[in-house]
Specification:
With 141 residues, the chain is α+β, with helices and mostly antiparallel strands. The chain has three helices and six strands. Helix 2 packs parallel to helix 3. The longest helix is centred in the middle third of the chain and has 19 residues. One of its GO terms (molecular function) is hydrolase activity.
């Protein structure tokens, strides 16, 4: 029996046709009672960018993705323990953190924020990854 559940597996060849990549990845991994969610951006699961030039709108879409992935893994937003947020410009901090804060009101995760020179696609202004847990009372293992 596998020790990890991989959620929304994909290959970068199809996901990023503009790049010469061929990597097998997934959007989230459930390992025991821990859920690791891959960095989420302002792109929906059909590959459509939401919020071109709008960091807050991209953060909203990223959090929609996070919520959906956590639910698919058997967790939820209230079980997030850590977030890491990447911004390509420090001026995006307020709109992005305000949007993320709406989704995580009352959760109190630990948080790391970074300003980076670029993300994997030039239209992405922000990215967020999370680690969450599944309480023992919800565990199926």
């Amino acid at each position: 029996m596998p020790t990890h559940t991989r959620i929304r597996m994909f290959n970068t060849k199809e996901t990023y046709p503009n790049q010469s990549l061929d990597n097998d990845l997934c959007q989230a991994v459930r390992a025991g009672n821990t859920v690791y969610v891959r960095g989420q951006v302002g792109t929906d699961f059909e590959g459509r960018l939401v919020g071109l030039g709008d960091a807050r709108a991209q953060a909203e879409q990223a959090m929609k993705n996070v919520k959906q992935l956590l639910e698919e893994a058997g967790s939820e937003l209230s079980h997030i323990v850590k977030t890491t947020t990447y911004l390509i410009d420090p001026r995006y901090r307020e709109p992005v953190y305000q949007e993320v804060g709406k989704w995580l009101k009352g959760v109190f995760p630990i948080s790391t924020g970074l300003v980076v020179s670029a993300l994997a696609q030039p239209q992405w202004l922000m990215e967020i990854d999370v680690i969450a847990v599944i309480p023992d009372t919800q565990s199926t293992e």
